[in-house]
Amino acid sequence: MSIEQALALTSQERTAELDLEQLRRLVGLVEYDTGADPFPVTGWDAVVWSVGNATQAALLYQAVFGMELVAYSGPETGNRDRHAYVLRSGAVRFVVKGGVAPDSPLLDHHRRHGDGIVDIALEVPDVDRCIAHARAGGATVLEDPHDISDAYGTVRIAAIATYGDTRHTLVDRSGYSGPYLPGYVTRTSSAGTPTGAPKRIFQALDHVVGNVELGQMDTWVDFYNRIMGFTNMAEFVGEDIATEYSALMSKVVASGNHRVKFPLNEPAPGKKRSQIDEYLEFYRGPGAQHLALATDDILQTVDILRARGIQFLDAPDSYYSDPQLRARIGEVRVPIEELRSRGILVDRDEDGYLLQIFTKPIGDRPTVFFEFIERHGSLGFGKGNFQALFEAIEREQAQRGNL
Ligand SMILES: [Fe+2]
User: Fold this and answer.
1) What's the CATH class of domain 204-400?
2) Which residue range or ranges hold the VOC domain (predicted)?
3) How far away, in angstroms, is 207 Cα from ligand 1 center?
4) Which of 132, 196, 334, 342 is most buried, taking the most CB atoms under 10 A from its CB?
C-alpha cells in the first residue's frame, strides 16, 4: 500500500466534505509509509455506545451536540433486541444502542458499566490481514472476518478485544454504500438545526483515552505496539504529574497516520483516590474515559454547548493570572480574557499550541466525559494542563464525596 492510500479519506470524511489539509490541521494527520505496517488502519469508523436509554441519548446528541441522525436499527426494522441510532458530525460517527428486550445482553453491559463505550470501531483496508497479524500475536479475536451484505453492498468485518469489555471492530466498507451497516435503514433528524446555529460544532474525532488498572498501562501500550502496529507518541506523563492527593501516568499510542490516537492512563499512587481510581470503581473496570472532538472554533463550540446546558470543568482562576503560565502560552489567536471567560485551557510545545476544554461526566456515573480541542500545530494532548485540570477535577470529586 502506498502513502497515498494511507492518507485516503475515510468514507465518513468524504461524506463530511473534509479534505486532507483540514484533517492535518484538525487532528494532526501525518504521512507515513504503510509498507512496513502489519496492521494498516485508515481511520475511525464509529464509536459505539451502550446507554440506558438510546432513544433519549440520540435526542441529546442531536439537540445539544448538533449531530445529525443518519441511520437506525430497531424493532421496526426487524431487530427486536435493541434500538440503535447512528449520528454524525463531520467525520465523527456515534452509534448509540439501548436494550429493548429485558434479557438483551446490552442491558447486562449497562448494569455493570453504566453509559459507556463498547466498541471503538476502525476502518481498515484489509480486515483479514489485520486479524491474521493480531491472532499471531495472541490477541483475542471476538469475531472472525466475515461478510455481511444487503442491497447497498457488502462490508467485511471482524473484531478483537481490547481493555476491559471494550472491543475494536474492524470494518472494510469499500464495497458498501449504505447509511451505516447492513441491518440499518436511513433515518433523518427530526430535530432541526436552530436558526443561526452552524451546521456542525465539531468536525472530527481526535483521540479516545483508555483508563486501565494500576500496573497495566505498559501492557496495553505493548498490545497496541505489537498487535496493532501503533507507535508511541512523544507525550509521556509520569509520576511527576500529581497534585497533593492523586496522580496518573499516561502514554500515547497512535496509528501510522496519527488519525487514531489512544492515550492510556493508569492511576499512580497518591495520598487519596485518583480520578482514574474513581473511574475504575464506577465503571467496574477498565474502559474509555474521554473522547476528544476536534473543532476549528472552540470558542463558538463552547458558547453553543454552554447555552444548551452542557457543563464544563472550571479552570482555576489562578490558571489565567499566573505569570509563568502566561509566559508559557505565548501568543494565541484570541486574547487570554476570551479563554478565561469560557474556561478554555492552552498548552504549547515545540510544534505549536492547542486549546482544550473538558466537560463534566455526561452520564449518571463519574466516568465518561468529552474534551473539545482546537489544534494549532501542537500534536500534544495538553500535558501542561494536567496539573490545572487535576485540581479542577478534584474539587468536583470532593463535592461528590469521592476524594
Ligand atoms: Fe484528551
Assistant:
1) alpha beta
2) 43-173, 204-360
3) 7
4) 342
